[in-house]
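Narrative of activities, Objective 1.

The group set out to show that a structural description can be obtained from nothing but a protein's sequence at a throughput compatible with the screening campaign. Below is one input-output pair from the validation batch, recorded exactly as produced.
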Amino acid sequence: MVKPDGVARGLVGEIIARLERKQLRLVAAELRTIDIATAARHYAEHHDKPYYDKLVEFMTQGPALVTVVEGPEDTWQVVRGLMGATNAKDAAPGTIRGDLSVGWRENLVHGSDSAASASREIEIFFPELV
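Output recorded for this entry:
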């Protein structure tokens, strides 16, 4: 997912290009403003965290590009490597966050952290693919 800050900054093309250069294939994409109920479902595991409300507020503030990317069996790991550390200040140069972001919450992209999470998130955003 390209988060609202990435869309607002005009980085969608750059981010998708990095995925494609890594031989990953975009199979679904939709630009949408995520509603509160969908954001709450997506971030349910963070519900009890002190940053949860701010995270939902951020994710619903403007359009995001939700996507499904295909590649090797471990595509989620490939994508996570391309994204870089969650805190952009810790992200290595050459990663999306390392090159293009400086924040923690506003860190441009989201990627599933496991195959199980990818399946759950695809069902949330693209139920027709399940």
